[in-house]
Amino acid sequence: MPATAQPTRRRRGRPPSVPLDQWICWCSIPIFYLLFGLIFVVLTRVMPPPRPDATTAQIVTFFQDNAIGIRIGFALLVAIIGFTAMANGLIAFQIKRMSVSPVFAYAYIGALAVGAVPGCLFASFAFVTATFRPDRDPEILRLLYELGLLSFVGSLGCFATQCTVLALAIFLDHHRIFPVWLAYISLWMVVTEILAGPVFVFESGPLSWNGSISFWLGTAIFVGWEFSMIILLRRAIARRVGEGEHAHPPRHESTRAER
After folding, report:
1. Spacing of C-alpha 3 from chain mean position
2. ω into 48 cis (within 30 of 0)
3. pLDDT along the chain (259 residues), means of 10
4. Predicted pLDDT of residue 13
C-alpha cells in the first residue's frame, strides 16, 4: 500500500491532531445525548413533561399507555448513565489546564455527580415503580408521577453550581482554553436553573414544570450550551496538541513543575 494512503485514511475518522483517549471521550458525548433524547422523548414520554394539573384518571392512563416504553427506556438509561462521567471528566480535564485552581475541576465533577441523582435517576425509578405493578392505588401513581417530575425539572441547585463553577473558571483563566462567551451562556444556564424553582409552587402556566419559562426556556439554552461545548471541546483538544502540549507529560517534567 502506498505510503500516502495512510494520512487519507486517518482524516476520515479521528483527526490526526487529537489523542485517541480524548477522542474516545469526546465521541461518547454526542452518542450519549442522542440516546438520552431517544429515552426521554420517544420511549418514556417524559420530555416534554406531561401536565402537572392532570387528573388522577389521566395520570393512570399515561402510565398504562407508556408502561413498556418507560420500562425499556429507563432500563437503557441506567445502563448508559455512567458515560456522562467521560464527558464530565473531559471538561474537568480542560478546566485543569486553565490558570485556576484544580478545585474548580473537582467542584465541577462533584456538582454533576450529586445532580445526577435527583435530576435523572430519581425520576426514572419513580416512573418505573409506577408501571411495575399496574394494579396500584391510583393515588400512589399520582404521588410517583408528581415526585418524579418535580425532581426531574426542579433539581436546580447542583446544576446551577456546575455552571457557576465553569463560568468562573473561564473568566479567571488567562490561557483562554474556552472563549469568554461560553461563560456567559453558562451564566444563562444558572438563570434558567433558578427559574425552575417556581415549579414547586405553580401547577399550571409558564412557571409550572412544563411551562414556557421553567422548562422550555431552560431546555433551549441547555441545547445551545451542549452544542457549543461539544464543538469547543473538540477545538480545545486539537489546539492543545497543536501548541505542542503533551496529553501525558513525562513524569520528571510534571515533578519539576510541581517543585
Report:
1. 42
2. yes
3. 48 61 89 92 92 93 95 93 89 94 94 84 93 91 94 83 95 95 95 88 91 90 93 87 48 44
4. 55
Report which of 78, 79, 95 is spatially closest to residue 167, judged by C-alpha positions. 95
Could you give the CA distance from residue 203 to residue 211 in angstroms, rounded to a whole number?
9
Residue 8's pLDDT is: 45
φ, ψ at 133 (rounded to 5°) = -125, 105
Computed on alpha carbons and rounded to an integer, the radius of gyration of the chain in Å comes to 21
Residues in the chain: 259
Extract the C-alpha cell encoding 199.
Answer: 415549579
Q: Which residues of 228-250 are buried (b: 16+ CB within 10 A; e: fewer)?
A: bbeebbbebbbebbeeeeeeeee
Instruction: Report helix, strand or coil for 18.
Output: coil
Indicate the residue type of 236: A
Could you identify the residue written with the cell 489546564? 97
Q: Apex CA 97: angle with CA 102 and CA 175, to 5°?
A: 120
